[in-house]
């Protein structure tokens, strides 16, 4: 069994990750507040609490490091893990920019360790069904793609998400990355160009509060990702092809079952209700299997680099008002 150490044990770890550990073990943790760390360890029966991130990465009790710290800490934490020969699973976005992710890839390759990004939605049943239906040709060639992610940031306990010294950005960096990765995954293609319109408001400060990111894909499709931190929760995936449309309302949620629906000629041609509730467990188990050489992990560090380049292009497009190509 792979023994995970969690770096950055905050709200996400408490709400999403700890319930998901089934075929793997959380052997240790570190968080910036040592008092909260000790309380978390008691609550979740985690045997080791480390005083520093380096102590966790160096510990012989840890096989793989799960980086769940704020965005700006991902680079030093990934480098620490690689330095100590530990496999690394890192939350999205991988870094503050693509140059940081390139450093991560160099370090993990040099250390010969498995490196993945925690794009848990690739393990959603809904996304995998959409991918299968597209690959089977059920809608013909994809032409248009849309994904939307909305939530109310004022209700979020993550206090650092408006701080540009810790966060890659507003909802583009926080949740648009889920959307664009989902579109890439279901269509099995990359993003080639980006054009962004975004706005700030009084509460978001230096980062954006809502945005539209238009994209061109390598398969010829065009698409848009729309995001806001000022709306009721929604996570839509919609793909329009030559002969049909696949629609999944709240397709990225893990809270309740969702419907994946195929339309042809304005009529329902196929319908499947699925639950994404096990997506985090499937992701954690798949990464552990990759570390043990028993399988492949769906969201590699290279995938994370492409997504980070898309984010860089999206922010550059917003700030310059020009369309940007993605390397």
Automatic annotation (TrEMBL):
Keywords: Oxidoreductase
Top-rank taxon: Bacteria
InterPro entries: Gfo/Idh/MocA-like_OxRdtase_N, Gfo/Idh/MocA_oxidoreduct, GFO_IDH_MocA-like_dom, NAD(P)-bd_dom_sf
UniProt organism field: Alloacidobacterium dinghuense
Name of this chain's protein: Gfo/Idh/MocA family oxidoreductase
The keyword Oxidoreductase is annotated on this UniProt entry: yes
Pfam family, one: GFO_IDH_MocA
Family: Belongs to the Gfo/Idh/MocA family.
GO molecular function, one term: oxidoreductase activity
Keyword Oxidoreductase belongs to the record: yes
Gfo/Idh/MocA-like oxidoreductase N-terminal domain boundaries: 2-118
Domain GFO/IDH/MocA-like oxidoreductase: 129-246
């Amino acid at each position: 069994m792979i023994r995970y150490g969690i770096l950055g044990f905050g709200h996400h770890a408490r709400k999403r990750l700890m319930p998901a550990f089934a075929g793997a073990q959380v052997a240790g943790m570190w968080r910036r507040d040592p008092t909260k760390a000790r309380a978390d360890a008691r609550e979740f029966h985690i045997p080791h609490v480390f005083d520093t991130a380096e102590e966790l990465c160096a510990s012989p009790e840890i096989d793989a490091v799960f980086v769940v710290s704020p965005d700006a800490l991902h680079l030093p934490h990934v480098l620490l893990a690689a330095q100590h020969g530990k496999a690394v699973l890192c939350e999205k976005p991988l870094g503050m920019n693509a140059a940081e992710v390139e450093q991560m890839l160099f370090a993990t390759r040099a250390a010969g360790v498995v490196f993945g990004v925690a794009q848990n939605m690739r393990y959603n049943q809904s996304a995998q069904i959409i991918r299968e239906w597209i690959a089977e040709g059920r809608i013909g060639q994809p032409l248009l793609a849309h994904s939307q992610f909305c939530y109310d940031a004022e209700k979020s306990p993550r206090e650092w998400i408006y701080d540009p010294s810790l966060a890659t950005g507003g909802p583009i960096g926080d949740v648009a990355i889920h959307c664009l990765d989902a579109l890439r995954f279901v269509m099995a293609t990359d993003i080639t160009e980006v054009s962004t319109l975004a706005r700030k408001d009084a509460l978001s400060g230096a980062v954006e509060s809502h945005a539209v990111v238009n994209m061109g894909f390598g398969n010829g499709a065009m698409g848009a990702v729309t995001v806001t931190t000022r709306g009721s929760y929604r996570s839509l995936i919609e793909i329009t092809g030559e002969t049909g449309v696949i629609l999944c309302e709240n397709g990225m949620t893990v809270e309740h079952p969702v419907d994946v629906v195929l339309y042809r000629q304005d009529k329902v041609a196929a319908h499947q209700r699925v639950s994404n509730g096990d997506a985090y467990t499937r992701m954690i188990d798949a990464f552990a299997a990759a570390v043990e050489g028993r399988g492949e992990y769906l969201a590699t560090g290279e995938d994370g680099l492409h997504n980070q380049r898309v984010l860089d292009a999206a922010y550059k497009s917003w700030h310059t008002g020009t369309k940007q190509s993605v390397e």
